Amino acid sequence: xxxxxxxxxxxxxxxxxxxxxxxxxxxxxxxxxxxxxxxxxxxxxxxxxxxxxxxxxxxxxxxxxxxxxxxxxxxxxxxxxxxxxxxxxxxxxxxxxxxxxxxxxxxxxxxxxxxxxxxxxxxxxxxxxxxxxxxxxxxxxxxxxxxxxxxxxxxxxxxxxxxxxxxxxxxxxxxxxxxxxxxxxxxxxxxxxxxxxxxxxxxxxxxxxxxxxxxxxxxxxxxxxxxxxxxxxxxxxxxxxxxxxxxxxxxxxxxxxxxxxxxxxxxxxxxxxxxxxxxxxxxxxxxxxxxxxxxxxxxxxxxxxxxxxxxxxxxxxxxxxxxxxxxxxxxxxxxxxxxxx
Amino acid sequence: xxxxxxxxxxxxxxxxxxxxxxxxxxxxxxxxxxxxxxxxxxxxxxxxxxxxxxxxxxxxxxxxxxxxxxxxxxxxxxxxxxxxxxxxxxxxxxxxxxxxxxxxxxxxxxxxxxxxxxxxxxxxxxxxxxxxxxxxxxxxxxxxxxxxxxxxxxxxxxxxxxxxxxxxxxxxxxxxxxxxxxxxxxxxxxxxxxxxxxxxxxxxxxxxxxxxxxxxxxxxxxxxxxxxxxxxxxxxxxxxxxxxxxxxxxxxxxxxxxxxxxxxxxxxxxxxxxxxxxxxxxxxxxxxxxxxxxxxxxxxxxxxxxxxxxxxxxxxxxxxxxxxxxxxxxxxxxxxxxxxxxxxxxxxxxxxxxxxxxxxxxxxxxxxxxxxxxxxxxxxxxxxxxxxxxxxxxxxxxxxxxxxxxxxxxxxxxxxxxxxxxxxxxxxxxxxxxxxxxxxxxxxxxxxxxxxxxxxxxxxxxxxxxxxxxxxxxxxxxxxxxxxxxxxxxxxxxxxxxxxxxxxxxxxxxxxxxxxxxxxxxxxxxxxxxxxxxxxxxxxxxxxxxxxx
Lengths: 341, 549
Known about the structure:
heterodimer; A: alpha/beta; three-stranded antiparallel beta sheet; 13% strand; B: alpha/beta; seven-stranded mixed beta sheet; two-stranded parallel sheet; elongated; transmembrane (chain B); PtdIno-glycan_biosynth_class_S (chain B)
């Protein structure tokens, strides 16, 4: 959790506003009964910085962090009641940074100790995102054991991925905080944060320098990155493209002066209602059914009976159908038992 | 009871076997009770199997895959183009039939040359017709292309004698003369765009070219024939067809401002950082009714626009501004512009879940703000507001409209959005069909099937309207088609992770059915074998008895 929160703070410091960040935390540490420092999360044993202190907006916490919700965020298939802050509102010009950390293994990432995100699910979601133009460039950063296997199935163009370790390797934590009793930050994340400490929102350090800053001997694993799907050379891409706020500003060249204070023609302002359109969907269904039934013409009684039987089968729902079936079976069994006695 | 069952279980009744002392013969017919019992159990299992399969069937609403494929291949092969008609009207003293025909063919050639590269989506493609009318007051001549068309210029209607006023008056005059024509959709379909050439001596200024706010432009002055043809062609193609942009810029429909469901939310917020200092208010409702309502109504076919406004207090800035004495106001640097919106403190989000996102920044008198805002809105929709390089095209002036968009600009937007929405709808439906076919055991709800069906209907209606040249109806249908297709694709039930694979199905049902059916089958087979064996014994002994007697 400290991994994610530290990167969250870094990214906010470099200018990405909260509304553009979707933070999913299992959130089981800060208020844990065993936490000596309640409501405080540190990423260093010197306890200098309380990551959970102020201005932390968690979008999905606790039980909401599931593989299904994660994939819904990526593909955009939410229920209609989900608020905007929980949706990924990106378009075809967006650069997205996806950072995942936790326990993982060969082709999977563990969620909440009970579920797994498989690499092919992730690849599938990214493919659907690309088809619907939900991003222009995507950077996936994974800090788990055997992280590089998680993005091995990706095929969509415009995706860059870096993992903290390769297949068969573990990723290690940086140091243990003996006061709190857990390791507080992982090595890959620690060195990533160290790289960003030197930057501010206007700097133009390139992704190449970030990727080259990882030292395998310090990480105790090989940070593997995959750039075969990414067109631009890494030395030309500033890190603020993904970690900072990039907004293209277009000037309005002039005002449009066609307006006068009083209009010559009064126009009625009518609000169109979309409900009428949606209601049509249900009404159409009944009309369809009636129409299709009218078309049937009885030719002979057997066909008529068969058709009637088919209609009955279609009309009944599954439960009554099963009940009919079971009833018949029991009748048959009873008859045969009586016969044998 | 136990004795009876014991006797029934005993394959050879002691009496029959004891009679011969031989296990290969029997005198009594073999019993069929057990065989019937086991066979009936087996049959009841087999008869229950269809019920089981039916009740555990995955419900998949049938999607019209073939129609989707045919729609998308049709749209890919030729982009939908909406027809337009152009007419040039010359007001000159002598009406000459040959001149009209010659000019007509020259202008057509010029247009073909200008549109020779790939037809842009949203333009008229190659689907246009040109006609020339010469009105000399006394006589009226048309080129052969437009003869008989009731939608073209009616000679003698316009009276230019009292013409002394400004460009707006000329515009209104021409509009009243052309009003019949621009509203009607005659043969060939599409709107009629007109350039009127008024030949008279204009003191000093040379040729004056003005583009009006309806569907016409006019040239005043003395021009030579090739110049006139070139200017008319340029107006037709670069202004009326392409909206002032070069051909390469239009095709990219990046950042279309209308959301996937065809709606746009305009949200206006008045921010007050320190209300203890001063409290501001704005007469938003009045201004909105006067200034925004016409724009909203004009854009209604392409976007369902809703307007919201709010006043926020305690919204401090996160960027620092400094006082500039020369300009007499507080200034922000350009570098701070992307970080101006302080999203931590400013809750600017709209009240409903609007589908897209776009931030328009305003500082500062409400009417002036609205003028700038309309300029920004036009920019979002891809239209410039000042046409700075108009002079290089030779246009002297563009007239502005109180609806925010002139009629020819609206036509252009309708065409462009129709084309884009249709293409987007087709690609979305194709992605959906590919996705659905790749997951054969995913539940497809009825709602998705209905949405796809309505989307296809709306798309075909839009194509029909587009070929007839009805711009606004085709824009509405295309928007509806895209909205329905997006709804179907983003339906929350299409989650690949929650479909049950065939292995899952087997894993649920096999633990019960496999052992039970195995036993039943074995029992039936055993009984059948035993029955056959006993029957064979009985038949041989019956034969022997017959042979002996």
